Structure formats: structure tokens, C-alpha cells
Amino acid sequence: MIKNTGFTLLEVMIALAILAGGLLILNNSWTTNSLRLQKANIYNNAATLLQKKMVEMEAEYHDKPLEEIPESESGDFGSEFPTYRWEMKSQELEFPDLSAMMIGDGQGNETTLTMIRQMTELISKSVKELKVTIFVKSHKKEVKFSATTYFVSYKAQLGLSGGGGN
């Protein structure tokens, strides 16, 4: 009597199906992790470049009058980061008119309202908003990352009317 010690065709087919399923799951997880790694790398580079550009802007305009800050600038990061570019936009701070709230509540007299308007005007003239945006070309679309800072001029004068101001 001859004893058959080999595998049947059915057993081999089942083993191959299990192996193929395992390889498919492994491939999907590898691809997903690879995409997550690429995305994390893009976010890390963008955050680092954004921080670098913000520090450069703050150093460049630190002691300069607000009028010397340009309305916009742009550039790239050279051959080291060819898919990244930056853009800076600045604007005067639009401070809301708080006197309108006091008039609506009926709580403000003319002197108080004048002082609030003058302070609002002083704050608006003394503060400039600067927004830096990093653009990244990734998979046929452009993703942007932004940060905003404010420059304050402490040399602005409050124009007091009436009384013996200088």
C-alpha cells in the first residue's frame, strides 16, 4: 500500500488564497503609511518654512515705521524646496468703532465718545497686521499655510482736541 504524503490541489489553492490576502493587506497598509509619511513631511516643511519666514519678517521690520512695511511681497525657497513659495500681505488694523456700542446703550456722553473715537483711531494707526502664507504644490493642487503677526508703533501720538494739550 502506497501512502500519499503530498498536499491536494485544494489545500494548495486555499494556502495561496490566504497568502494573497495577507500580501494585499500588507500592501494597503504600506501604501497608507507611505502617504501619511509624505503628508507629515509636507506639513513639517511648511511649518518650519513659515516659522523661518515669520522670524525674518519680524527681524526686518522690527524697528521700522509702519509706513515702511510693504503691502505685499512674495518669493520662493530656492532649489532646496522647489514646490514651496511664500507670500506676505500687510494691512492696517481695522479696529471696530466702540463708540457705536455706547451710543446704542445710551451710556456715553460726548466727552467719553470723543475719547473712545480718538483711542480707536490711535490704535488703528499704531498697529499693522502682517500675514505670511506658505503655498505647497502637492498632487496637482496647492495647499496653503498661514500665520499672522502684528507690528505696533509706540511712537504714535494721540491727537487731543480741546484743553491745553501739546
Which consecutive residue ranges, at least 5 long each, have pLDDT under 50?
162-166
Distance between the termini: 122 Å
Beta-strand share of residues: 25-35%
Structural class: alpha+beta
Report the average pLDDT across residues.
84
What does this structure look like?
The protein has about 170 residues and is an alpha+beta fold. The chain contains three helices and four strands. The protein has helices at about 10-60, 100-105, 110-125, and strands at about 70-75, 80-90, 125-140, 140-150. Strands 1-2-3-4 form a four-stranded antiparallel β-sheet.
Summarize the structure in short.
With 166 residues, this protein is an alpha+beta fold. Helices cover 46% and strands 25% of the residues. A four-stranded antiparallel sheet has the order 1-2-3-4.
Topology:
Elements: H1 9-61, E1 72-77, E2 81-92, H2 99-105, H3 110-126, E3 127-138, E4 141-152
